[in-house]
Specification:
- The structure is a single chain.
- The chain is α/β, with parallel strands linked by helices.
- Helices cover about 30% and strands about 20% of the residues.
- The protein has eleven helices and eleven strands.
């Protein structure tokens, strides 16, 4: 019980932090070195009467679409991996994340125009599904940070499901993911149908991994396969029952997308989830070097990146995929740039981050690999 209280307290501290409410009111575009991320948003949240919030944590009557542009301060004024929430409103684009525009996408024509303007020459789309305890603006700003800091050339599409953004609404959030899985499948299908889209990567964090894997499972059952445009699926700290995941994977059929799994046995948020879920190991907390997980992941062709020894990140070791500068830039350089972590396995440690102090450990064969990041991802002597 003491352990649970400590975890809940840490979660509450990390979730609150005195953030401003209503950050989605647009500000003037800065004439500066600030960057802009233009994203398409699909959501099953209920619209809010407050335009500065846009969508609440309650469940809506269907799928809503919006276009949001986020300004990110110049790199000299911010730390890579962090969302710089405004201390005061209106936000200052020189020092804060700020909303430049936020409007609904009312028609299919609006959506197609957005794809036409934002899909890069490589035709790559990134769909992001957030995790537990995220308000609408949390998901928008976090995704903008990931896109910017990874440096990936992608058209960003955010799928956000109804989370109340409150610690003690864990069960409500979890049921909201079930409520949203059909809409997520529809969103993925719609992106794949766009003629200008050639490749899709889906990235899901924490509880968002559940509707993601479910949507892909449903697609495979309906169509006999997962759409071939879906090349990569990144599951970061997935809050999924390990046994259930293996049954979901069985339904993926032939030629499924590449699956990359970011895990940490030090993930304290998933430790709490595990206690609340009958003590069945969560997929994001497995030790991929031991059985049965090693054989299961290799059989499924899953590439596991074990971040247990990475020291940098949030206090719960639950958001390292986005907050650790080296990890988020790894995804941009490798996974989101058409390369795979299996390439050049003889030197895989260097491929994992490009900045580690030594080689990673590779476990598995051609079908799957485990990358164990070195303990010292930052070398005090400056070795890269």
């Amino acid at each position: 019980m003491r352990y649970l209280i400590v975890i809940l307290f840490a979660l509450m501290v990390s979730a609150c932090g005195g953030r401003q409410i209503g950050v989605l009111s647009p500000v003037s575009q800065p004439d500066s070195e600030a960057s802009t991320v233009n994203m398409l948003v699909a959501t099953t949240r209920a619209p809010s009467d407050d335009k500065s919030i846009m969508f609440s944590g309650e469940r809506g009557g269907g799928l809503s679409l919006a276009k949001v542009s986020v300004s990110i301060p110049p790199d000299k004024n911010r730390q890579i991996g962090q969302v710089q929430w405004p201390r005061n409103l209106p936000a200052n684009p020189e020092t804060d994340f700020a909303t430049l525009s936020a409007a609904s996408a009312d028609s299919l024509s609006d959506v197609r125009k957005w794809f036409g303007r934002n899909v890069p020459a490589n035709k790559h789309v990134l769909i992001f599904v957030h995790g537990f305890n995220n308000r609408f603006e949390d998901a928008v700003y976090r995704f903008a940070q990931i896109v910017h800091d990874s440096g990936a050339r992608v058209a960003p599409v955010l799928f956000t499901w109804p989370s109340r953004g409150r610690i003690f609404d864990y069960l409500y959030d979890r049921e909201s993911t079930n409520f949203s899985r059909d809409a997520l499948e529809s969103t993925i299908r719609a992106a794949a149908k766009e003629p200008g889209v050639g490749e899709i990567t889906i990235m899901a964090h924490s509880m968002g991994a559940w509707p993601t894997v479910e949507a892909l499972r449903q697609m495979a059952i309906r169509d006999g396969r997962i759409n071939p445009k879906i090349k990569n699926v990144i599951l970061a700290s997935p809050d999924i029952d390990t046994d259930v995941f293996m049954t979901q994977w069985e339904a993926f059929g032939k030629n499924p997308p590449h699956i990359y799994l970011f895990t940490s046995q030090r993930d304290r948020a998933l430790s709490l989830s595990q206690r609340l879920s009958g003590r069945v190991t969560r997929l994001g907390r497995i030790d991929p070097t031991i059985e049965p997980y090693r054989s299961q992941m290799e059989r499924a062709g899953v590439v596991v990146v074990d971040l247990s020894n990475v020291q940098e990140g949030d206090r719960l070791n639950h958001g390292q995929f986005a907050e650790n500068p080296e990890i988020v830039q790894l995804m941009g350089r490798r996974l989101l740039s058409g390369q795979s972590l299996e390439q050049d396995q003889g030197n895989l440690g260097n491929a994992v981050s490009g900045v580690t102090a030594g080689l990673g450990q590779v476990v598995g064969g051609v079908a799957g690999a485990v990358v164990t990041a070195p303990i010292m991802i930052f070398d005090p002597n400056g070795r890269l």
